[in-house]
Amino acid sequence: xxxxxxxxxxxxxxxxxxxxxxxxxxxxxxxxxxxxxxxxxxxxxxxxxxxxxxxxxxxxxxxxxxxxxxxxxxxxxxxxxxxxxxxxxxxxxxxxxxxxxxxxxxxxxxxxxxxxxxxxxxxxxxxxxxxxxxxxxxxxxxxxxxxxxxxxxxxxxxxxxxxxxxxxxxxxxxxxxxxxxxxxxxxxxxxxxxxxxxxxxxxxxxxxxxxxxxxxxxxxxxxxxxxxxxxxxxxxxxxxxxxxxxxxxxxxxxxxxxxxxxxxxxxxxxxxxxxxxxxxxxxxxxxxxxxxxxxxxxxxxxxxxxxxxxxxxxxxxxxxxxxxxxxxxxxxxxxxxxxxxxxxxxxxxxxxxxxxxxxxxxxxxxxxxxxxxxxxxxxxxxxxxxxxxxxxxxxxxxxxxxxxxxxxxxxxxxxxxxxxxxxxxxxxxxxxxxxxxxxxxxxxxxxxxxxxxxxx
Length: 456
Known about the structure:
- The chain has helices spanning 25-44, 47-63, 65-76, 80-98, 135-148, 163-174, 189-198, 211-221, 246-257, 278-290, 310-317, 353-356, 372-380, 395-404; strands at residues 5-9, 16-21, 108-111, 114-122, 125-129, 152-156, 182-184, 202-208, 227-231, 237-240, 270-274, 325-329, 343-346, 363-369, 388-391, 411-412, 431-432, 445-453.
- By secondary structure, it is α/β, with parallel strands linked by helices.
- Strand 6, helix 6 and strand 7 (182-184) form a beta-alpha-beta unit.
């Protein structure tokens, strides 16, 4: 590996998969310039034709779904079942937004003396910066609505997990998208990502990653009044009331936090349990955690794979120190690979680091609460507000608590955070803007108002 290349390492075996050339600053500038040139013709492509090309792109992804899934297993250590879903999600998001070019409706607004109409105009070049935890879906959430709205896209995958993004870029060309409409640029954040923020031809930046980096992007984008969408950190709460189906709540809780080895901004890494059923919940939770299948991610029945790197494993382990009471743990394979077992801890208080900070690994903290007001207070006692779950049989309570918790995406009696047809995004320091669903298109367009006088 040199400063001009990066060795992609399989997290499960620690073996080098391949070496990827890193995009230089000069190459980044040339790619942005080409995307800027391609924008004029892409925005003028007939809406039906733009939609047809996106459907072809979706079909190409679908045809390569197994190839992409197997690549993601080696690229990032995802279980193959997750990776198949992730490739399918890219296909589904492309299909969803393929309908958008013919449905980017403006309005006719009643005014005196004429006719007033609005148009939704594309912005230009959009820079999409993708994290390492979900390389395929998060890329698709950015580039699909951007392309549908008539923008061109330059996309930077995470330096350590570039392989599936590179292949998706190739599939776009194979499907017939014009050259330079969608370009994948593997490289360092300090080079490629930084240039997306500073280059004047990039009119919008979509970033998913840490709150720390997101705030830096926000501050620097202000110099050009550049539009941004930020999906940042999370410390989501899983709130379990005494009247819930306790067996189901405990059985599903591991998959609300240990999916993707906990490397998920939506992970329900704080479990709040009503005090009267707290001990019973832990009794039910322990065998559920022990039952999580942590094994080679290429196995069809694997439910959790390794962490993405040795450095990240060390960071996760630092949250489980001598001051933290470990209630129980699951298992993890011995030998090579950056494995960490599913771990349940009992903080001393809501001020403990493991309760307050985003661990981004398979560690979950559990504390009791007293009543509805206490649950809402504890759930909101965080800088984040991305996702969360509420478990109760009382529909009125579910609605009251959902309205009270300051977070962007909540599920009742479920741990689902993302559907491609519904908006996704955070409150507070979990981000700005909304991805997915019909709302996403608004952030990739500007509204133009046109008045036509009809007076004699």
